[in-house]
Amino acid sequence: MKILSLVGARPQIIKEAMLNKEFQEAGITEILVHSGQHYDYNMSDVFFSVLNIKQPDYNLNVGSGTHAEMTGKIMIEFEKVVIKEKPDMILVYGDTNTTLAGALVGSKLKIPVAHVEAGIRQKPKDMPEEINRVLTDHVSSLLFCPSELAVKNLKKEGIEEGVYFVGDVMYDLFLKMKPQFKYEKLEELRLKEDEYIVCTIHRDFNTDVREKLETILQQLAKIGKEKKIIFPIHPRTKKKIKEYGLEGYTKDLIITEPLDYLNMMGVIEKSGMVITDSGGLQKEAYWCGRRALVVMEDTGWRELIENGWNKLAKQEEIYEKAEEILSERNKKYPSNVYGNGDSSKKILVVLRGIS
């Protein structure tokens, strides 16, 4: 069996690497194609050294552009590779323009497409990622869902064939990396377990409007007078705080530079809770056994909202909702929401079964 995997962003590269190991052990040939949408092969990255991530067999070098330009360029160049390699299956990941382009090429050439991380849905429906997800799911032959909710989302849209709940490949990664989590930051910043909050804010809808960012910082400052908040600051957020002259709100926050994955997981694992607008961090907090306040109107990871583990909050609700989470100390942990950490193996079983 020959699989053609198409990636275009860092999280997709990492997911592919988790599956590549399984393919190698099973004797499946995998050709890796990088679209060049976000070319970020930083070989000093911890994931690259631990996972032995390989260089792509093809790089399409599409670069930046409008959504239409990028999707069109990827389709044109990827089609050439597909025709040359004649794969049995095309594998795409997530919700980028690369994902949609690969799915469209495969479906039009009548080659089965497998979508890893299928069934995720999030409002607003006109956001580019949501459009990519929905269209990719509707042209894919195999849909590998990270949660039971994702399976239900597909069923609502009439998609029931070829749907599998396999769990989240990123949970496989989390478990693999967990023995290497670092805790030096706690000692350096004099943080005691359960007695501090980790906060990350970087989404444009939270940072690019002065009033919204100011409200967020006001809310965090209020919490910061009562509980330590470590705030690894994203370059976008740092820039906007300075641009808007909002530095005064950060004096009670522990501002640091962005933390790498191992240090970030270390501080989250020992925290009291997390406040974030990051998609990945919502799940990572859950895997660390910590609850998250999600500063978004909606999230693709609704299962953690529906089971009450995480909470959504508008900018002006942060203090109130954080107090609610901190007061609910005995909340029962909802286990196995994203599988058991064997998603890569389950995907392999399905692929071998149809080959």
UniProtKB/TrEMBL annotation:
This is UDP-N-acetylglucosamine 2-epimerase. Keywords: Isomerase. It comes from the Bacteria. Its EC number is 5.1.3.14. InterPro entries: UDP_GlcNAc_Epimerase_2_dom, WecB-like. Residues 25-351 form the UDP-N-acetylglucosamine 2-epimerase domain. The keyword Isomerase applies.
